Amino acid sequence: MEAELASQPDCWQRVSELDGLAAALRRPGERVAVVGCGTSWFVAQTIAALREGAGLGPTDAYSASEATLTERGYDAVVVISRSGTTTEIVTLLSTVPSGVRSVAIVADDRSPVARLADEVVALPFADERSVVQTRFATTAIALGRVAAGEDLTNAIADARRVLSLPLPAILTDAEQLTCLGSGWTVGIAHEAALKMREASQSWTESYPGMEYRHGPMSIAAPGRTVWVFGDGPRGLAEEVAGTGASYFAGDADPLAELVRAHRVSLARARSGGLDADAPRNLTRSVILSS
Fold first, then answer.
1. What's the domain range around 139?
2. Which of 18, 63, 238, 273 is the most exposed place for a label (fewest CB within 10 A)?
């Protein structure tokens, strides 16, 4: 995990230089569903928000088990699967309506998911050995940002800087962390929280930033931290301070802040004597028996 998370800026650089990879996501005017499981579901949420926000067309995100593809008029279904073997994704591809283009974003272009899709966007350079995803997920998001017309130069520079900085104690030592985002960074917040749960068994939660006051704020207390990815709601920092909890909003690009979350996840795992590459009860791919 340590080596893989450190390589993320290089992976994003490759995506930014291989513009053709993003073509399958960029077709303006298409109505698109983006689908994933686990980490890839949160990546799907992020890509969907980026695509729609860029004016490329209505874009919805689903977890594969809850996807509704019929009667919604989709032009394309984009599935995301690092291994290309996830059972729910394989099953979903067999239900894509006739005439709807299917696109697979995978690390292995020889995988079952890749073989079932009409188009394949292969990211083999972002594949991983660790069970815990880092660079594949962020590289897929980087792909979505390139498709949305964004320049990754600042994000790449910020990620390199984040990799060199010491980690704040309010992140590594917090009893509990709540991750918040807005717009395309809601998926980033969800993924950051999941990473810390997976790698270090940490108590983490995640919400859209404006939803935090609607219940979740009840757990804010001294020794706990609210971590905001991107711009936080106005006045929230002061409200969190009033609870005694810590408030952290990094100054890096939100995707680079996710790299910081990966480092925090690894640090918290090591502190607890855990192997982040082999989290409890998890496997690299979920393959269900029939």
1. 2-147
2. 273
Structural domain contains residue 277: no
Rounded-to-integer distance, Cα 56 and Cα 146, Å = 12
Q: What does the alpha-carbon distance between residue 115 and residue 122 come to, in Å, rounded to a whole number? A: 12
pTM of the model: 0.96
**SS3 category, 147:** helix
Secondary structure (DSSP) of 152-181: -HHHHHHHHHHHHSPPPHHHHS-SEEEEEE
Alpha-carbon distance of 97 to 90, in angstroms, equals: 14
- Residue 6 domain flag: yes
The strands making up 119-122's β-sheet, listed across from edge to edge, are: 59-63, 32-36, 76-81, 101-106, 119-122
Spatial separation of the C-alpha atoms in residues 238 and 235, rounded to whole Å? 6
Each residue's pLDDT tens digit in the chain (290 positions)?
999 999 999 999 999 998 788 998 999 999 999 999 999 999 999 999 999 999 999 999 999 999 999 889 999 999 999 999 999 999 999 999 999 999 999 999 999 999 999 999 999 999 999 999 999 999 999 999 999 999 999 999 999 999 999 999 999 999 999 999 999 999 999 999 999 999 999 999 999 999 999 999 999 999 999 999 999 999 999 999 999 999 999 999 999 999 999 999 999 999 999 999 988 877 767 676 75
Q: Is residue 155 part of a domain?
A: no
